Amino acid sequence: MDFRHTMNSRRALSAMAITAGLLLTAVGCGGGDDGKSDKGAAPTSAPTRSGSGQKESEAPQQDTVLAEVKGQNGLTLAVTSAKRDSGGFMTVEGSVTNNTGTLWVAADWRGDERELAKNGGSIAGASLIDQKGKKKYLILRDTSGRCLCTQFTGGVPDGGTAQWFAQFPAPPQDTTTVDFQVGGMPPASIEISQG
What we know:
Helices cover 14% and strands 28% of the residues. It is an alpha+beta fold. The protein has a domain at 67-194: Immunoglobulin-like. Strands 1, 2, 3, 6 and 9 form a 5-stranded mixed β-sheet that branches. A 4-stranded antiparallel β-sheet has the order 5-4-7-8, with no helix packed on it.
């Protein structure tokens, strides 16, 4: 019995020694000031904590609006991002704000194709127009016909804003600007960035 207690004690001491060694190693590798300064780097600070011990949330950064179009009795479409992804895809993101005075369900944004009808109120009918290459890119779909895009489940209430995304095949690398079009909204000319 003594032997077993001795072995357990040794294991516990070994585990504590290893943990302490790892902790000291991690602290020692903590990127202290070595006398060199990076003049271009922004100063960093640790997040502040409130009295309850939880992190205070930082203010959300404002998205850059690449394009904004208005139409359909007070509906506003904003495009905030258009990035090429690896694998030949392009993801476009933005928001839609409903100031129509009633619930908006995106019925005319889902597209005319029979396959797209399964997507309900969505941005499935969106397209990209490459004026330079004279091509139109339709939204990507999975094998069951669902769009790789946002579905506005339940609609957007009056005065509300909803975020959206849509994925397309990426235009050629030399195409830097495309027109984003959906439903009865005017086309929005957007600049493509690399993801």
